[in-house]
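B., you asked whether I could sanity-check this one before it goes into the benchmark set. Here's the sequence:
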Amino acid sequence: MSAHTWTRRQVLNRAAGTGVALGGSSALLNTGVAQAHGGGHGTKNRMKIIAIEEAVLLPGLVTQGTALNGAIPFKPEVVAQWMKRLPDITAYRLADMDENGVTMQVLSLAPPGVQMQPDAAIAVADAQRANDALAGIIATHPTRFGGLAALPLQDPEAAVREARRAMGDLGMAGFLVNGHTCGHYLDEPQFRKVWAALEELGAALYLHPTPAPAGDWGLLKDRPELVGPLYSWAAETAGHALRVVLGGVFDDFPGARLILGHMGEFLPFHMSRLDVQIDNIVTRVALKRKPSEYLRKNIAITTSGVMDDNMLRAAVGAVGIDNVLFAIDYPFEKSAQAVGFLRHASLPSAQIQKIAHRNAERILRL
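And here's what the prediction gave me:
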């Protein structure tokens, strides 16, 4: 049976039956909170909600938590709250989900994940151990959690093997990469084999910001507050996604799918300018379509961290309702605020349902 023909339930049953090794992550599997998820009040409040950019911190990954330990000037008391919730599954996370009516979180490694590990062999081992731990969490709470697996892109061939294992043996819903990998971007030639595997597996790749830009941005000099969610994360991630588009990745792999958080990292609001100016610029790769067409066909976006009804309606108009998914960015954003924003969005009920869960079920095959 090929990797992409396994159903999620088959894989989860297999993982539960064989006892997935958690590599020292038993603290992630506290039990003590009932798995019943909250119903809220009224039909709209009882709708199924799947949040797909939800961070978890796993013990023993050396580079994890870099974003929270000095790279960005977050307030210490805020970081303390995040660090209490990031490694947890049941004491805080499930209770928060129940309280706010979140049916499922799709978990992924907190930034920078394995992307900043300079030793390729360590990165591969870390990704394998992290993915095993995620699979264990999912097997224990199969109706509450899905997973986006880590990819050790430091070694592209090993990343392909891990992609096949994650989808075929572990039942992952897709993959998440935290920005550049030691200064390397996804349009570079060595990653073509990774894109080929992702297309074959039918697996989406979530491109998440990484703690700091790969290069020295003069613009950020003496303004450390611009590093991170206020500016640089969106700017660099949008640029990274445009590298993928302009590098012809989606012409070579038309079935590949990228997901961007934070309402598309500026890009939905820049689409018309991209289409106009691409005709005025000498590009290294002759694209088959306008940039906006790739943004509508090959890229989906999530609502993580952008809880503004005007922006949501504009994004839906720009990329299409079938390309917008819900995310909270737990624990960095408040679930109550994100869920309340979704429930009160000024969109037709059918469109809200697509954002809340149907698009995630289709794209991530949950």
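One thing to flag: Residues 1-43 have pLDDT under 50 and may be disordered. Otherwise nothing jumped out at me.
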